[in-house]
């Protein structure tokens, strides 16, 4: 949600580059020894060459998507291996593997659903005609369906249920190495960012960017502990904007690593595919200029405040983030987190009350003191104009509401 405006220092980038190049080059040499095929050795070397690693370590954020497109075109079997769940997404959601087979009616349903599953897999094959895994799964389900047609309604189905369950494991990307050249599964071992980024360096990255609040949600504090502490040290997670499980070759790219909070990284985003479902990379852009938040029916609330107390729980916040992300899911649950928590409703009430108490933005007194408008707003709303949104929780939220209530057009 908040753009990372500060650049990494040259010193940090050089350190990162040297650490990454040294580790991956050493790892490549080790893994090449475990491959027998000359062709597989060459392909692994080609994608993990020193020149390619050197480029990927510091590749600019605006070129990350181009890199994915290039790999998808040059190595379709490689792309398929790491994105196999996409190929079977419709089938996985169908959940034939969870059906019961106890009663005669259960068995009839199971037989019908297996036929439907075969139809879904066949449609996937038309979409991804080169997939060896889809060929295998289609053949296995065809055999199961053919066998089921020979059974009576009372015949046991447990053997076929187990076969379906095994196919679902394959469709989820487990146990598929046998379908692919040896070099493809090895790539994720070479491109392993955790092999050269330790806790101290992750803290150094976060501090170098001057981040104290999660850039995704602008809610949770992520300021790391001092690395020289004798106690256990906290450092924020580094989210792979393009998930390392889908795009392992980008797992070492520094501009694919976003310091963020645990909620955004693990609870909400996980391995969400930001290539197929576009979302803004904080290194490139944020939602700093767009109006995301508004108070519903603010004029009525201001009238009610003139007569006395108003319950913050009755305030309704409008979140417009979906207007700017198109068909992409609100992966960080921005709307839910701001609209559903009392603290943010109370912050909205503070802003409304400050405006009402200032005689609707004309007299900026607080106690016995007279302030300028900016100082008054900061004093009574806990909004600090001069402090970065990456160091102030909820700054974007408060700014949008202050602009709405006071009729301002301030930007982050």
Please describe the topology of this protein.
Blueprint (H helix, E strand, L loop, with lengths): L9 H23 L5 H10 L2 H8 L6 H11 L1 H7 L1 H4 L1 H6 L9 H24 L4 H17 L9 H14 L11 H8 L8 H10 L29 E3 L16 E3 L2 H8 L23 E3 L2 H10 L9 E3 L2 H4 L8 H6 L2 H16 L7 E2 L2 E2 L2 H9 L13 H12 L6
Antiparallel strand pairs: 1-2, 3-4, 5-6
List keywords for this structure.
mainly alpha, 6 strands, two-stranded antiparallel ribbon, about 400 residues, 3 domains, two-stranded antiparallel sheet
Question: How would you describe the overall organization of this protein?
Answer:
This protein has 412 residues and is mostly helical. It folds into 3 domains: 10-82 and 187-269, no CATH class; 89-171, no CATH class; 293-406, no CATH class. It has 19 helices and 6 strands. The chain has helices at 10-32, 38-47, 50-57, 64-74, 76-82, 84-87, 89-94, 104-127, 132-148, 158-171, 183-190, 199-208, 262-269, 298-307, 322-325, 334-339, 342-357, 373-381, 395-406, and strands at 238-240, 257-259, 293-295, 317-319, 365-366, 369-370. Strands 1-2 form a two-stranded antiparallel sheet. α9 runs antiparallel to α10 (158-171) and α17 (342-357) runs parallel beside α19. It starts with 9 loop residues before the first helix and ends in a 6-residue tail after the last helix. The mean pLDDT is 90.
């Amino acid at each position: 949600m908040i753009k990372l405006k500060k650049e990494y220092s040259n010193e940090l980038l050089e350190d990162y580059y040297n650490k990454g190049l040294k580790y991956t080059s050493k790892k490549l040499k080790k893994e090449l020894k475990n491959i027998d095929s000359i062709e597989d050795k060459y392909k692994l070397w080609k994608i993990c060459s020193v020149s390619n690693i050197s480029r990927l370590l510091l590749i600019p954020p605006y070129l990350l998507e181009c890199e994915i497109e290039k790999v998808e075109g040059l190595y379709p079997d490689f792309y398929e291996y790491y994105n196999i769940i996409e190929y079977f997404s419709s089938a996985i959601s169908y959940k034939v593997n969870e059906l019961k087979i106890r009663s005669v009616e259960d068995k009839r349903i199971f037989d019908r659903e297996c036929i439907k599953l075969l139809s879904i897999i066949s449609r996937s094959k038309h979409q991804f005609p080169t997939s060896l895994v889809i060929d295998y799964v289609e053949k296995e389900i065809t055999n199961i369906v053919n066998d089921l047609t020979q059974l009576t309604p009372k015949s046991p189905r447990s053997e076929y249920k187990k076969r379906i369950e095994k196919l679902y494991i394959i469709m989820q990307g487990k146990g598929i190495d046998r379908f692919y050249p040896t070099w493809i599964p090895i790539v994720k071992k070479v491109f392993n960012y955790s092999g050269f980024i330790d806790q101290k360096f992750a803290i150094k990255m976060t501090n170098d960017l001057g981040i104290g609040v999660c850039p995704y949600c602008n809610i949770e504090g992520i300021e790391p502990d001092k690395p020289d502490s004798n106690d256990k040290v906290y450092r924020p997670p580094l989210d792979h904007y393009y998930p390392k499980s889908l795009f392992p070759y980008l797992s070492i790219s520094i501009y694919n690593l976003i310091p963020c909070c645990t909620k955004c990284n693990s609870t909400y985003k996980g391995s969400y595919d930001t290539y197929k479902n576009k979302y803004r990379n904080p290194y490139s852009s944020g939602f700093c200029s767009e109006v995301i938040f508004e108070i519903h029916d603010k004029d009525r609330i201001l009238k009610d405040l003139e007569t006395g107390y108003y319950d913050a729980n009755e305030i309704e916040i409008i979140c417009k983030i979906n207007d700017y992300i198109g068909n992409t899911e609100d992966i960080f649950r921005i709307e839910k987190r701001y609209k559903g928590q009392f603290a943010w409703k109370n912050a909205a009430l503070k802003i409304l009350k400050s405006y009402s108490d200032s005689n609707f933005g004309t007299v900026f007194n607080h106690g016995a003191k007279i302030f300028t408008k900016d100082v008054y707003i900061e004093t009574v709303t806990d909004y600090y104009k001069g402090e970065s949104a990456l160091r102030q929780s909820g700054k974007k939220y408060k700014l949008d509401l202050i602009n709405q209530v006071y009729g301002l057009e301030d930007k982050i």
